[in-house]
Each structure stands twice: as structure tokens, then as C-alpha cells.
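note to self: dont lose this again. the chain is below, predicted strucutre after it. 127 aa total, dont forget to put it in the shared folder this time
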Amino acid sequence: QVHLVQSGGGLVQTGGSLRLSCAPSTRTGSRYAIGWFRQAPGKGREFLATINWDSTKTLYENSLKGRFTISRDSAQNTVYLQMDSLKPEDTAVYYCATGKKLAFYYLTRDLADYDYWGQGTQVTVSS
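---
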């Protein structure tokens, strides 16, 4: 069992930046890829980005690459999602997640492969 603890988020104006953090509760969690997703009101959960255990591989939703950057600090056992040039349509609840299949070098955008989810954090971008 891996618990993911999220922090960051909040209210920002259009064009602003935010950084989200996601920390596995155990060092075991550091061996797995971590993904970021979001869910806007009335919509399904959307894949954003994922990074493998040693930061050698990343996978992004194509439409977000360039504005969102995923990174990992192994010493802090924390994964970050840096979000720049934010738009009102980025308003959503953001989640990090990991899964038992996601050890070492396997990356996926498939929600079904993610077993453990963070508590979610609200990001609101005002126009």
C-alpha cells in the first residue's frame, strides 16, 4: 500500500504559475512511476504527465507539453508538476497517482494502471 500526499495548488490569475507536489509515504514508493491527472467539473479524469522512478523517462499529454513540466527529487522522495502560463480551462482538481505495475521504466497514461491516488488538490485559474 502506498499513500500519496499532495500539496500545492490554489488560486492564480491567467498566465500565472503553480507547482504541485506529491510525496509517497514510504521509500518503496520511490521505485515507481508517478503520474499526474486532473478532473474538471462534469468531465472525466485526464492524464497530464508521468515520470519514472529515476527521472530518465517522462511522458506528457501532447497538448500540455511546454506549459507543464514534471520532475522528481529523489532525495526528497517528491514528484513535482510545474504549471506555467495557466489558463482558465486548467481549472480542475489535480491528482497524483502510482500503481503496482509502474516499477522502474514502465510509463503509461492509462488510468486503469494506477492503483493509488493522492487526495487531490484544487487549482483555480481566474480570467
